[in-house]
Design brief:
The chain is an alpha/beta fold. It has one domain (5-220): P-loop containing nucleotide triphosphate hydrolases (Rossmann fold). The protein is 28% helix and 28% strand. The chain is built from seven helices and nine strands, in the order βββαβαβαααβαβαββ. The strands form two sheets. It has a six-stranded mixed beta sheet with strand order 5-6-7-3-8-9, with helices on both faces. It has a three-stranded antiparallel beta sheet with strand order 2-1-4, covered by helices on one side. β1 (5-16) and β2 form a beta hairpin. α4 (109-118) runs antiparallel to α5. The chain starts with a strand and ends in a 10-residue tail after the last strand.
Length: 225
Amino acid sequence: MEKKALIEVKNLVKEFNGVRVIDGLTINFYAGDRVALIGQNGAGKTTLIRCILGLYTFEGYLRVLQKNPRTDREEILHRVSFVPQLPPPLRMTVEEILDLFDEITRLDKEKFFRIVRDLKLDIENHMQKPFLKLSGGMKQKLLVGLALARNPGILLMDEPTANLDPEARRVLVKYLEQLPEDTLLILSSHRVKEIGHLVNRLVEMDLGKVVVDEPYDPATMQEEC
């Protein structure tokens, strides 16, 4: 049975001030893929994710759910969740963010509260606080809860465990293990050993190109990953 491509990339190019950060990249990501996206800082991982999210203009061909992420961004984001490496500088309160997500996405509030409580975020006592005033770990737990509670078809996570304590990282991994079978999960992370058992595909980028794209077997994982 042929796998369904949820993200299609052909000859993708992205430049900043004349510097080519994504250099003619071609790759597809499929329903059910659990991808470890790795590479050194500056390899182009975050830029690729931001192109997929429609945050950047680009040259070449990029389709997400068979739609253009620039012109059909709102429709695409109903089915795509994202946890960034650096939390955005939101001035809204936690309650306002929840209300906004509830209005524009399919947020399962009951699931959201269950996730953040499992992550040991005392959400009820922070509802009136501006997001900016939360600690790095609290922001990350809130963003993880929002992403997972939407039951996305595509889940993109850029260094999602960076600000999490060890117990919260274990809780996050538990929830990722429970994702529906056909969900596309792309994890950009330097902690491959920590999430290795979740992954069935390894994609390594270097200088804006894919240099490794192969099935992933945790039993053969090398120390340098």
